[in-house]
Amino acid sequence: MPRAVYKKYYDHDDRASGSSNIRKVSFMNGVGGRVKKNRHKFPNNAMLDDGDVNMGGNERKQWNNRKKNKKQYKGRPGSPTMRNPNFRRDAPLTLSDWYLVKLFYGAKYNEHDLHRLLLKHLAPHVFKFYFSFTNENHFYFYTDNYEVAVTLRNANRKILLEDGHLLVIRVKEGVPSSVPVDETIKSRIKAVMSKRYVAETKALDLTKFANDPSFADGTFCPLTRPPIMRAVWQIISEYTSDIVAINLSSNKLVTFDDSLSIEIKKLKNLRIVYLEDNKIKNISAFNCFKESEVTELELRKNPLKSFFKDNTHYVSEIRKKFPKLTKLDGMELPPVISFDVAAELITQLPTPQAAFICNPDGRGIVKAFLSQYFAIYDSDNRLDLAQAYHDTSAFSLCSFYPPNQKSNIVRLNRYTADNRNLFRVTDYPRRKERLQLGKRNIVEYLSKLPKSQHDLSSFAVDLSLFTPLLINLFVSGVFREPSPSTSVKSWPVRHFSRAFLIVPVGQGFCIINDTLFITNATEDQVRCSFIEESQNTSVLQSPPQNRQIDQAVANLTSAVGSVELNDTVRLQMVETLATKTGMNVAWSKKCLDETNWDFDRAIWTFTQLQSKGSIPPEAFVKC
């Protein structure tokens, strides 16, 4: 049955029932658009002169009583609930180091009775009153336990005191006031430290230092405060400089001041440091320990490890701060790969050399090859280099500007057009286009490059592989690009690095692969290059100011050789061919003689004759 809707009148409704709950919203300001004033002066609008009779005496008193009897004034139906403006809701507690607890009118009671009463209500939690004090009949204390702080807050008005009152408790985050480190405080710190020092083991236990009962009178000396920590380390270095172990666990430590390194350096015997259950997050917190001799470190229950991707990275970074570390978080660490040697062994180390020659037999070949190759390369006709390259050889050029170079430096435009830098040239077709194949294409391309004058005294040479079948040679140095129209000082100076793969062919050698890298020379390279201008300068000579190059020159000068194969190389080629083919030494030498000592050709010839059965059986008979 539909609900009856009754009419509403402007002043009142004579019907006591059936009124509609439908809210009506009006945007009118009143009669004639004016706001009705002084409506607050007539609170008893319900009792107008319409025949109603006031049976309760004072009208204002009845009105006020009705307001008090209502638990909440909701206003119009559907309107938001109005709250007492004096109502205060405490903010939720967050994780913090310390919390301040206030017991209202707690100063009237015995402190031990209050503690016993709270422990009984908060069981199984156990806690102490830290830095307690009274103020205006209220009792205050600190706690560093988050769970205890939350439980105490929830116990508000739930604990009955002996006099029948409910205990009012307020808890908020707060840090005890620190005290200046004067001589009085230092004396108290010394007393606490002496009580915690074990002379037999030379160990100092500073676990929960600020919570020591000696500071229970309100003296706040946390190690998180730099002045307190500095005073502690000064006392250690002054009175217990032979200390071996120190335990700093559970002190809420986040970092150590770098200035502490001055005191830590004095502790020559310090080997064990425990920092368990602190708040260390950054590896830089240990900068002050970098020069220490600590071998054992405990860091469990710190957030630091969570910032590393794996344990290996974690151990590696910790060892950068503690170079002598052998035990971390209770685990033995593998030995450190170190280049530290005893002073008496330094004289036994080999003398450093600028050039590396893997085989002394290759020195002469390197000497002849470099002197002849770059003499032709710096000449007016580079086409003569065709004799140095194999028919199937390959060449590639790569160029790149040095980092942080000045904007006005000489450009590398003459080399970047065919730059085969694999970081820049990513697609395969372009890479293939910029690869020079065959001796003819290579020498024609080299002839198009700018003219050059190499400073042979700047060469650094590495012979990394020398076998009868393959030679791998690296050479680097500087060269300049001469120009008749400009002065010598304005000629561009470049740095180059070149890698040659060389194979024996006939009575000599040929380049089968050549890779050239060119960049602008550094300021130091420019300053040290072309100091001695001489027509006789060669790879065997060097300026006296460069000792490393001078050593390299000595290595290369000591060998006398030519591009022809010597007896040692020939014997190695014979033995290698005999191993690969199964022929005896005599027939292997015969095969190489008939192929002009071209090893690849000798292998190919053997394969062809073997497939036809043309090699006699005696070739495989070994004495």
Automatic annotation (TrEMBL):
<dbReference type="InterPro" id="IPR030217">
    <property type="entry name" value="NXF_fam"/>
</dbReference>
<keyword id="KW-0433">Leucine-rich repeat</keyword>
<keyword id="KW-0509">mRNA transport</keyword>
<feature type="compositionally biased region" description="Basic residues">
    <location>
        <begin position="63"/>
        <end position="74"/>
    </location>
</feature>
<dbReference type="GO" id="GO:0016973">
    <property type="term" value="P:poly(A)+ mRNA export from nucleus"/>
</dbReference>
<keyword id="KW-0677">Repeat</keyword>
<dbReference type="Pfam" id="PF03943">
    <property type="entry name" value="TAP_C"/>
</dbReference>
<dbReference type="InterPro" id="IPR018222">
    <property type="entry name" value="Nuclear_transport_factor_2_euk"/>
</dbReference>
<dbReference type="InterPro" id="IPR032675">
    <property type="entry name" value="LRR_dom_sf"/>
</dbReference>
<dbReference type="GO" id="GO:0005635">
    <property type="term" value="C:nuclear envelope"/>
</dbReference>
<keyword id="KW-0539">Nucleus</keyword>
<keyword id="KW-0694">RNA-binding</keyword>
<dbReference type="Pfam" id="PF22602">
    <property type="entry name" value="NXF_NTF2"/>
</dbReference>
<dbReference type="InterPro" id="IPR015245">
    <property type="entry name" value="Tap_RNA-bd"/>
</dbReference>
<dbReference type="InterPro" id="IPR035979">
    <property type="entry name" value="RBD_domain_sf"/>
</dbReference>
<dbReference type="GO" id="GO:0005737">
    <property type="term" value="C:cytoplasm"/>
</dbReference>
<feature type="region of interest" description="Disordered">
    <location>
        <begin position="36"/>
        <end position="86"/>
    </location>
</feature>
<comment type="similarity">
    <text>Belongs to the NXF family.</text>
</comment>
<dbReference type="InterPro" id="IPR009060">
    <property type="entry name" value="UBA-like_sf"/>
</dbReference>
<dbReference type="InterPro" id="IPR002075">
    <property type="entry name" value="NTF2_dom"/>
</dbReference>
<feature type="domain" description="TAP-C">
    <location>
        <begin position="568"/>
        <end position="623"/>
    </location>
</feature>
<dbReference type="GO" id="GO:0005654">
    <property type="term" value="C:nucleoplasm"/>
</dbReference>
<dbReference type="InterPro" id="IPR012677">
    <property type="entry name" value="Nucleotide-bd_a/b_plait_sf"/>
</dbReference>
<dbReference type="InterPro" id="IPR001611">
    <property type="entry name" value="Leu-rich_rpt"/>
</dbReference>
<dbReference type="InterPro" id="IPR057125">
    <property type="entry name" value="NXF1/2/3/5-like_LRR"/>
</dbReference>
<feature type="domain" description="NTF2">
    <location>
        <begin position="365"/>
        <end position="518"/>
    </location>
</feature>
<dbReference type="Pfam" id="PF24048">
    <property type="entry name" value="LRR_NXF1-5"/>
</dbReference>
<dbReference type="GO" id="GO:0003723">
    <property type="term" value="F:RNA binding"/>
</dbReference>
<protein>
    <submittedName>
        <fullName>Nuclear RNA export factor, putative</fullName>
    </submittedName>
</protein>
<dbReference type="InterPro" id="IPR032710">
    <property type="entry name" value="NTF2-like_dom_sf"/>
</dbReference>
<dbReference type="Pfam" id="PF09162">
    <property type="entry name" value="Tap-RNA_bind"/>
</dbReference>
<dbReference type="InterPro" id="IPR005637">
    <property type="entry name" value="TAP_C_dom"/>
</dbReference>
<keyword id="KW-0813">Transport</keyword>
